[in-house]
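Sample intake sheet
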Amino acid sequence: MNPDQLLHLAQVYRFLAGAFLYPRENWLEDLPDLAPILESLELRFPAPVPSSMDLEALQADYRHTLGLSGSMPYETEIGLPDEFRQSQEMADIAGFYCAFGFKVGGTVRERPDYLATELEFMGLLALKQAYAAGEGNLERVEICNQALISFLTDHLGRWIELFASALTLAAGGNADDPFPGKPYVWLARFAASFVRSEGQQLGVDLKTISIRSAIPTPVGPELSCESCPAVS
């Protein structure tokens, strides 16, 4: 990709990251401005695009859809054998962030494996790659490119399809239902298709977790009710 395309890529990731946070502004109003950015990347929105609604209604849909999704928006809560592997994965994610100066915190405090956090990190990598390409720093371009590939392969690209499918089911739908009245189900599907296309662009065959085989990551005994004397 050229620097302009990389900047557009970063814009889409940043949009997705912001949209998966509790809405303080109406991201549906930004979709018309995002459409030409997607076209420059030879992509488009999945149909149908959700109809407009006011901010209060969008906030209600967030609470009803994402607010009731429990641990689903967190990578390490699904599919790992135990809490020790969960700690290892969290450390690996944090290692990626640290290597590129990405700090989790600020006004919105979320875990490193939260979906919006991982999407924002991908946007940062694309932005860094764009600046490196603009300066002709080919070594830095390749470092960023390899980081994009690694993070997609080991983290975001492994579970975002699962998240989109699980969110659809949690909202009472199925994979063939377009859910035009459910903005956050649509958003999850859009994010999954966008990440899939990015993997194809990078030449990565993403190995996604199947919803049929996915199980919640076990909670350690000290965090569960197993050790409680009242449990017999």
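Comment: DSSP finds seven helices and no strands in the chain. The chain has one domain: 3-223.
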